[in-house]
Design brief:
Number of domains: 1
Shape: globular
CATH architecture: Up-down Bundle
Order of helices and strands: HHHHHHHHHHHHHHHHHHH
Structural class: mainly alpha
CATH superfamily: MFS general substrate transporter like domains
Number of strands: 0
Strand content: under 5%
CATH class: Mainly Alpha
């Protein structure tokens, strides 16, 4: 008798049945690897901006647009139609193609001769990455029941700090020893090689396996505009999206400008900053990522409001410690505070994905994840680094602050996250009511 394919086996499990443990683990591992390369390729431009700026003669505003705005506009715009496709079509294939495209464009970035060509290459990276994360989130939601999703999402989300750590550490080493162009080639080339493995090894689960029969495929026929309207009708969803975007503004400002901050203000070498950022974002981010999801699941089992309160408390704590990190004169104290910032900065990740997926039917989850990426990246990645760089240029010229203009621009960038954290603390009752409405 001929063995059935992995896809058929998973589909036969039916709604409510748990997939085999080895299938779930292998699929999670593959999604983890793909996501890790997503963040490596996104981070690489951050650490390479120092030699790129020197060679190509770019301003802070141009660097801000390159690391944020140009990427975010295409990444977030394309994520919506691709995510809508992922809610209907094979998610595994979408992820594999996305990985091949963005990795290839990362490698092509090595050929950039001026600002325009580098922007075009980064746009290509954005086009590829637009399809990966929403489809991955949707698959994970069909592998784990609601009460375990925050932990599952946080486990998968550990790819973010790992990707940042490898992006800072490996890219910094490559740039130091081989140059920024070879760094692009090597990092992009590895991703291209991995892409075919996703097709052969990743298993596509049945949609809505752990959801009540009442929550069915009613959203499948909706257009993008109608689906957006469906999400916007929920007040708690509107608050979550806008508060997440506010946090994204601060998060991406800190992530994109912390390397120049330490080289300009504290006189650290590029290799030393790369090593520190790798350790802080990798170890600190991993602790915050897993702890956020685990704590949200444990406290949320007692009171669902804790799932959003954990997000708010972590964001406000991050802003407080980041303020101290930016203002203290001691380099070593600043570095220690930065480690705490990296723990708190990313603790929201698993909880917010679990919260949003708990408010929509299974065949709208990829799209919902894409909407979160849209808001988070347009406000955060698109505006955060650019606005901070622009403000730094303005302060340097108008107040004659020199390199210290970047310090005060980063201090100003903490305001949006503080407001977003307060918003999460205020929507606990609204979230609990929305969840009760989904279950009745």
């Amino acid at each position: 008798m001929m063995a059935r394919s992995g896809d058929e086996t998973l589909q036969d499990l039916g709604e409510g049945a748990a997939p085999p443990a080895y299938v779930r683990r292998m699929s999670m591992l593959l999604l983890f690897i793909v996501s890790t390369f997503n963040y490596i390729d996104r981070t690489i431009i951050t650490i390479l901006q120092v030699p790129i700026k020197t060679e190509l003669g770019l301003s802070d505003a141009q660097i801000g647009a390159l690391t944020g705005l140009s990427f975010a506009l295409f990444y977030t715009t394309l994520s919506l139609p691709i995510a809508r496709l992922a809610d209907r079509a094979n998610r595994r294939n979408i992820i594999a193609v996305s990985l091949a495209v963005w990795s290839g464009m990362t490698a092509f970035s090595s050929l950039a001769m001026n600002y325009t060509t580098l922007v075009l290459c980064r746009i290509g990276v954005a086009v590829g990455e637009a399809g990966s994360i929403p489809a991955s989130q949707s698959i994970i939601a069909d592998y784990y029941p609601p009460e375990r999703r925050a932990t599952a999402m946080s486990t998968w989300g550990l790819s973010l700090p790992l990707g940042l750590m490898l992006g800072y550490g490996v890219t910094g080493w490559l740039a130091q020893h081989l140059g920024w162009r070879y760094a692009f080639v090597i990092v992009g080339g590895v991703g291209v090689v991995i892409a075919p493995l996703v097709i052969f090894l990743l298993k596509e689960p049945a949609r809505g396996r752990f959801d009540p029969p009442r929550i069915s495929t009613s959203q499948e026929a909706l257009s993008i505009r109608e689906a957006l309207g469906y999400l916007w009708k929920m007040k708690v969803m509107r608050v979550i999206l806008l508060a997440a975007g506010a946090h994204g503004f601060t998060q991406y400002s800190l992530m994109n400008w912390m390397v120049p901050f330490y080289t300009r203000i504290h006189g650290m070498s590029l290799s030393d900053v790369a090593l520190y950022m790798a350790a802080a974002s990798g170890l600190g981010g991993a602790i915050g990522m897993y702890a956020g999801g685990s704590i949200a699941d444990k406290l949320g089992a007692r009171d669902e409001r804790w799932r959003v309160w954990v997000i708010g408390l972590s964001i406000i704590g991050m802003a407080v410690f980041a303020l101290a990190q930016l203002l203290v004169p001691s380099l070593w104290l600043s570095l220690c505070l930065g480690g705490i910032v990296n723990v708190l900065m990313i603790a929201y990740y698993g909880p917010i994905l679990a919260v949003m997926h708990s408010l929509v039917p299974p065949n709208a989850r990829a799209f919902t994840g894409a909407v979160l990426l849209l808001v988070f990246n347009i406000i955060g990645l698109g505006l955060g680094p650019f606005a901070t760089g622009f403000l730094s240029d303005v302060l340097a010229k108008s107040l004659d602050l020199g390199d210290h203009s970047l310090r005060w621009a980063l201090v100003c960038s903490l305001v949006p996250a503080s407001l977003g954290g307060l918003a999460f603390l205020k929507i606990g009752n609204g979230y609990r009511a929305a969840r009760q409405g989904m279950q009745t």
